[in-house]
Amino acid sequence: MSNQDDAFTEACVEVMSRVAASVAVLTLEDPDGTKRGMTITSLSSVSSDPPAVVVSVGEGASSHPFMVPGQTIGVNLLAADQTNYSIGFSWGKSEDPFADFPWKYGAADTPVLTEAAAHFVGEIEKVEQYHGSAVVMARVIACDIAKDETLVYWQRAYFGGLEPVEGGVTGTW
User: Fold this and answer.
1) Cα Rg of the chain, angstroms
2) Which residues are within 8 A (CB) of 146 and not within 5 positions of it... i.e. 6 or more apart?
3) Contacts of 109 (CB under 8 A, 6+ apart)
4) Is residue 103 within 8 Å of residue 112, measured between CB atoms?
5) 3-class DSSP state for residue 99?
6) Could you read off the pLDDT of 88-143 as tens digits, one per residue?
7) Which of 109, 110, 139, 160 would be 72's cystine partner, CB 3.0–4.6 Å?
């Protein structure tokens, strides 16, 4: 890779750091009964009817091999005060994050974090491999909201509160 390629890659990473993203923890139980979790910011709504989402899981993640149709996943939106959850579920930062953070079995016996701001359980319907990541499309089968403020990641920092801009439009689209 040339220096120009390195500079281009770094510029793209810098641009993407300006995309604000919700911080969530993806959870699942694999066929052997092992609970797995990972912090994600690659979450987007695909459809509201039926409710569906898309997430991206890198091939280096322990959850990657289990991103298959029929598998259920929990997507736990972290509360504004839960940066420790984000760090605990990031790339092996905690030996066993399920021992460190409270959880329960939710819909379809899928592990979910009990103190998350909100969560949903989805059933994976389609997976596409793309440049070392699994692009996972899941139909939402259950959801719950516990808190209003969620954790946001922007420009390599966590934010816990968002303020509407003056003259901004609010409401249902």
Assistant:
1) 17
2) 79, 115, 116, 117, 118
3) 29, 72
4) yes
5) helix
6) 999 778 889 999 999 999 999 999 999 999 999 999 999 999 999 999 999 999 99
7) 110
Residues 6+ apart with CB under 8 A from 8: none
Whole-angstrom distance, CA of residue 56 vs CA of residue 118: 19
pTM: 0.92
Task: Return the H-helix or E-strand segment holding 8.
Answer: helix 3-16
Q: Hey, is 130 helix, strand or coil?
A: strand
The token duo for 96 is 């066993």
Among the listed residues 50, 46, 114, 33, the one whose alpha carbon sits nearest the alpha carbon of residue 78: 114
CA pair distance 49, 145, nearest whole angstrom = 19
**Cα–Cα distance measured from residue 112 to residue 171, given in angstroms and rounded to the nearest whole number:** 29
